[in-house]
Design goal:
Blueprint (H helix, E strand, L loop, with lengths): L7 H13 L16 E6 L4 H8 L4 E6 L2 E6 L1 H9 L3 E4 L27 H14 L4 E8 L5 E7 L11 E6 L7 H16 L4 H9 L1 E5 L4 H7 L57 H12 L1 E2 L2 E2 L1 E9 L3 E4 L14 H18 L2 E4 L10 H7 L4 E7 L16 H6 L2 H10 L10 H5 L4
Parallel strand pairs: 7-8, 7-11, 11-14, 12-13
Antiparallel strand pairs: 1-3, 1-4, 2-3, 5-6, 6-8, 9-10, 12-14
The structure holds N-sulfamoyl-L-glutamic acid and zinc ion (ZN).
N-sulfamoyl-L-glutamic acid (3K0) binds next to strand 2 and strand 14.
């Protein structure tokens, strides 16, 4: 989501999408679907201009130079036009049926390698059963529709008495970003396989506690595939009283500077509807409550985090609510440590590193809350692909192995830095000299 490749690739977007989506199903219809579509918008070049586009209630899905892709309803698209931009509707999600009749509640036939909620839970249970001394599962709460939201704890029995620094990985706040669940399953597999065989993994699991929340938005994810074709759904599935519009954007519902700064919407029909209050979405409350339980004797055990999203291939750090690099609660040293480790992770996975607000202003995001409220070094990764032309939110299943493994080194880097993020800027003594 960054103006990093003006020209070539962007210019091809519309043409490739048109060819990709022949026979594509209508986007985001159905109960509370609201008739949203993706549009290519030509014109906005600056973060402020993109923030103005987002302020219409659209979600900004990718950015290439002065061309951006948004998801919006027809009225929001008109408002974007009124800002003076060119707006062209794109085809709906790709048809991956392979010519077969869609089967409700499953991924389309050609994407069967992606895991439904039930399949992901079953795979996780099997992984835990295979590595009972390394992994355990906690049900940390339930989604609006009553699905379990789980956290998997991964750590070895070595150093049992130590307060090991903890690292949190969260996945799938946005329903259509299914690749992020595959990322969680990949990490669990790697940790299971690598403990005792890979020295880096072994060292980390002896000295860290890893928490993986593989599916923050199970209801949204299931809704997205409920017809057997994709619906391009983003939010959760919580009804909004007095409105037929369903859902809250979970990544605008966190309790730090919620609704502060024009980075979310108060309209239920918006893709970035922030909810009626911070933590009004049960899924956000569940994860936030879990994070708060990790504050023990007044000290937050979780030191670092990654929240996985798609797409655009970015590594981002806070804040999203302000364009400024530093702000109350985010010092120059904090910023420098964020940027140093962020750039190093990006060098390993080939993503683009930047502050979240370089894209557009957001408020009520998980990263701003994790840092602003809990002082956890929290990053957002926007995974593959870099553009809509490569599949956007729906990359083919053939890329799952490659694109999850692509983040292996970055994840290990974060684990290695988590005990003292300020070591990365040569300030370990100043910030981490007492036992952390
Ligand atoms: O912190 C952020 O900037 C979040 C970016 C994220 C969002 O919530 O707008 N982008 S996404 O919705 O396309 N995954
Ligand atoms: Zn997302």
């Amino acid at each position: 989501m960054r103006p990093r490749s003006p020209g070539g690739r962007a210019a091809a977007t519309v043409a490739v999408l048109l060819s990709l989506a022949l026979a594509a199903p209508a986007a985001a219809r159905g109960p509370g679907g609201g008739g949203t579509h993706e549009y290519e918008v030509t014109g906005p070049r600056t973060a402020a201009q993109r923030t103005a586009v987002a302020a219409t209630g659209a979600s900004v899905d990718s950015i290439h130079g002065d061309r951006i892709v948004i998801t919006a309803g027809a009225e929001q698209a008109d408002r974007v036009r009124a800002l003076g931009h060119r707006v062209v509707r794109l085809p709906g999600p790709p048809d991956r049926s392979g010519g077969r009749q869609p089967k409700p509640h499953t991924f389309p036939a050609q994407d069967a390698k992606y895991h439904t909620y039930a399949e992901a839970m079953a795979e996780i249970d099997a992984g835990i059963a295979a590595h009972p001394s390394l992994m355990s599962k906690q049900v940390i709460g339930r989604s609006h529709e009553g699905r379990d939201i789980i956290a998997v704890k991964v750590t070895s029995g070595v150093n049992p008495g130590a307060a090991k620094p903890e690292v949190l990985f969260t996945h799938h706040q946005h329903a259509r970003e299914h690749l992020t669940v595959e990322m969680a399953l990949y990490l669990l597999k790697e940790f299971g396989k690598g403990y005792g065989t890979d020295s880096r993994v072994t060292k980390m699991l002896d000295n860290r506690v890893v928490w993986i929340v593989p599916d923050v938005n199970p209801d949204g994810g299931e809704f997205d595939i409920a017809t057997g074709s994709y619906r391009n759904w983003r939010k959760n599935r919580q009804p909004n009283s007095g409105s037929s519009n369903v859902g809250t954007d979970l990544n605008r519902n966190w309790n730090y500077k919620w609704a502060c700064c024009g980075g979310s919407s108060g309209s239920t029909g918006s893709e970035t509807y922030r909810g009626r209050a911070a933590e009004s979405a049960p899924e956000v409350k569940v994860v936030a409550d879990f994070v708060r339980t990790r504050k023990i004797d007044g000290k937050q055990r979780i030191k670092a985090a990654i929240d996985f999203h798609t797409y655009s291939e970015l590594v981002m750090w806070p804040f999203g609510w302000t364009y400024d690099d530093t702000a109350p609660g985010l010092t120059q040293d904090d910023h420098d440590a964020f940027a140093k480790v962020g750039k190093s992770m990006a060098a390993s996975n080939g993503y683009t590193p930047e502050q979240s607000s370089d894209l557009y202003i957001t408020d009520g995001t998980i990263d701003d809350w994790l840092w602003g409220d809990q002082k956890i070094f929290a990053y957002t990764f926007e995974m593959y692909p870099s553009s809509a032309a490569q599949g956007g939110f729906y990359p083919p299943a053939s890329v799952i192995d490659r694109e999850t493994a692509r983040n292996r080194d970055a994840v290990l880097q974060l684990l290695e830095n988590a005990d003292c993020m300020y070591r990365s800027i040569g300030k370990e003594q100043q910030y981490c000299s007492t036992a952390e």
